[in-house]
Amino acid sequence: MAEIIWTEPALQELDAIAEYIALDNPAAASNLVKAIFDKIERLASFPKSGRIPPELPDSVYREIVVPPCRIFYREDEQRVFVLFVMREERQLRAFMLEHS
């Protein structure tokens, strides 16, 4: 079973997305965060279950989609690193350039 490790940028971005949603609907924000953590916890047993992002076909990164979010991670034999979270409608390349 792999250990799940959340990076600080991933947690901060998830928090920002949840705060924005909570302005209009606190219950939806809470449900989104719970759904994301539930999906990520499954990676402990099934780390290859996420898809390879279409924009990064030859990369070591994988993603889980929980609308309206994409959660990017990479895994090794014993750990899953949750690297970043972004809203689905954002362009991945622009998002990565913004955060590098």
From TrEMBL:
Name of the protein in its database record: Plasmid stabilization system protein
Keywords: Toxin-antitoxin system
Pfam families xref list: ParE_toxin (PF05016)
Stated family: Belongs to the RelE toxin family.
InterPro entries per record: RelE/ParE_toxin, RelE/ParE_toxin_dom_sf, TA_system_RelE-like_toxin
